[in-house]
Amino acid sequence: MTQLAETLFSHTPPIAWPQLLSLQSTQVKQVSYCQGQFNISAQQQPISNSHNSRYYLTLLAPTIASDALLNLLSALSQLQVSAQVSGDITLYPPAHYPLQLATNDNKTLTQGDIVVLGFTPLSGALQQQFHTTLASWSNDYHIDYALSQTLPSLNQPGVVLMDMDSTTIQIECIDEIAKLAGVGEQVAAVTAKAMNGELDFSESLRSRVATLTNCPESVLSQVADSMPLMPGLELLISTLHQANWKVAIASGGFSYFAQRLQDDLGFDAVYANELGIVDGILTGKVIGDIVDAQVKADTLQALATAYQIPPQQTVAIGDGANDLIMLKSAALGVAIHAKPIVQQQAQVALNHHDLEGLVGLLLAANCVEASWS
User: Fold this and answer.
1) Out of 88, 113, 144, 165, which one is annotated catalytic?
2) Has 140 been annotated as catalytic?
3) Which one of 42, 53, 116, 141 is at 20 to 30 Å from 135 when CA atoms are compared?
4) 298 phi and psi, to 5 degrees?
């Protein structure tokens, strides 16, 4: 075991720490940190496999600077010591993740940094202290984080189920239809309350759709033709399909738009609500059962069963209150640019990334499986 002071690392970005350590030791199997000291071991230390024994903290940003990481390591180690548990934090080899999709026009990929830290164990009280510290740190350094016990891996098949409005695309389709139908402000106000969990989703959807009675179907085409994709969506779908994952939409919005996205981008399945249309005119009704919060969660489980995906390889991502049950039923539930109630309750919240952040989260498992040497 070799001990190194953190000052040695203070002027080297974490992504280059493997090269720095190779200058200090010919064999590096495990790296840990405790109160200002890095412990470098030539042997892999055993890790407990008992239930609830291991937590992983994934950090994501276009660049993670040494001062940011050292400040966090010091703060979290001190919290552990104050809680009278070991202050040791395991560091896994850092890695890059793509920030954009490679194209023929742009063959030089812009990449971000991933750093994964390991902890064992974390009580409920200590987890809460971690989250308070991490939230402040994340805002200071504009670095997203995920504290979880599960790291779904792209090295085996999995499934991602996505919300559509404000997740897969950057708009709420019903609000855009309403604008063109002359009832935009009225509908947008109800949508905002529904997404914040202030209204029953199904009732609010029926009331909003009723305001669209006699709206021409051509309006739907106008909205669909100009749907702005959430940045990183095409990168995410490409990454998932290359890894033999399935990716689907479950939306409280409308199948007209979900099917357009499936046709254009290759989603494996889409589930959404059906607008009543007769002779090219909206009837103001929703046909059949509504895709609500519970249906979204049930859809995730059904997809996992249909594709024979193990529970630890299920991921969900959304932004609104009607996504919470789905997020909680996944091994990794991710809120993206989410409403306050979702930020508070979701396992992970992406605030400084778009969908490329989910690609980074899914590559975190590779760091844990990688070797420092």
Assistant:
1) 165
2) no
3) 53
4) -65, -35
pLDDT in tens, 354-367: 999 999 999 999 99
DSSP 9-44: GTTS-GGGHHHHHHHH-S---EEEEETTEEEEESSP
Q: Which of 88, 163, 175, 354 does the annotation list as catalytic? A: 163
Cβ–Cβ < 8 Å for 316, 361: no
Using one digit for the tens of pLDDT, what is the confidence trace for 27-70? 888 999 999 999 998 877 655 444 457 899 999 999 999 999 99
Residue pair 302/152 in contact (Cβ under 8 Å)? The answer is no
User: 196 φ, ψ to 5°?
Assistant: -85, 0
Q: Shortest CA distance to 190 belongs to which of 212, 169, 160?
A: 212
Tens of pLDDT along 61-109? 999 999 999 999 999 999 999 999 888 999 999 999 999 987 776 666 7
Q: Can you point out the beta strands (E) in the chain?
A: 2-5, 30-34, 37-41, 55-61, 89-91, 95-98, 111-119, 144-148, 159-162, 246-254, 269-278, 281-287, 314-318, 332-336, 348-350
Confirm whether 165 is a catalytic residue: yes
Ordered alpha helix ranges (H), 44-166: 66-82, 124-141
